[in-house]
Design a protein that fits this description.
Layout: H1 14-29, H2 35-54, H3 59-85, H4 91-114, H5 120-142, H6 151-169, H7 177-223
Helix pairs in contact: 2-3, 2-4, 3-6, 4-5, 4-6, 5-7, 6-7
């Protein structure tokens, strides 16, 4: 059976034909409507669910919030894999994916600070780093510069997600929940170091590219 072809007795149904035609039209004229981008969008939509659940963390709600956070974080792995596997990497996906990651992590950090699970200084430094890198990325894009992602940034994100998950589970009904605070805090400090190092290196790459572009512009102007 071909993709989009109705099966069974519904094959002659005008309703099904119209639905299939509409689906094919959407896929043909809007390539951004694909599984990776839908997974990224679902991660954004899960953020308010996590916030509502963890805003008043009873043990049951904290456990539910941890599950929601884990599912949201898992979509970050799946959407990238699916996009590469299906060759469905789009500009919208490249824009939404880092935004979704930042919203998920920063929302969780703010709540953890509110309930005394994370030192405010740690959260402020992480938030400042994300704002700075986002600003650099915006300027780089406007200048036509490409600053490749680094492996250390992926390690940073992984450490942040695991740390937040452990600290969220501290309020849940799980065995040895008290241990999660120490493990989560230690991992979050490691994530902070990775965050600052990767942010500094990102800024250095941007500075070098901007300086190189300025030198090339000066040489062209001098030659003219």
């Amino acid at each position: 059976m071909k993709r989009g072809e109705p099966s069974g007795d519904l094959r002659g149904s005008g309703t099904v034909t119209r639905i299939d035609t509409h689906r094919d039209a959407v896929a043909a004229f809007d390539p951004h409507v694909n599984l990776p981008n839908l997974l990224t969008l679902s991660r954004i939509l899960l953020i308010p669910v996590f916030v509502v659940l963890y805003s008043s963390p009873s043990p049951e709600r904290a456990l539910a919030a941890a599950v929601v956070f884990a599912v949201a974080a898992l979509t970050d792995l799946v959407d990238g894999y699916v996009a590469r596997r299906r060759s469905q990497i789009t500009r919208v996906g490249r824009l939404l994916d880092p935004i979704a990651d930042k919203l998920l992590v920063l929302s969780a950090l703010i709540l953890l600070v509110q309930f005394g699970r994370v030192d405010a200084v740690v959260a402020i430094l992480m938030i400042a780093r994300e704002v700075a890198v986002t600003g650099i990325r915006a300027v780089a894009a406007a200048e036509g510069l490409v600053i490749p992602a680094e492996t250390i940034g992926k390690y940073k994100m992984t450490a942040q997600v695991i740390a937040i998950l452990l600290l969220t589970l501290e309020d849940a009904i799980v065995p040895a929940a008290w241990y999660f605070h120490h493990a989560g805090t230690g991992l979050l400090y490691a994530a902070l170091v990775l965050s600052l190092v990767s942010g500094g290196h990102y800024g250095l790459q941007f500075w070098r590219q901007i300086a190189g572009q300025d030198r090339r512009d000066a040489q062209r102007n001098g030659a003219a």
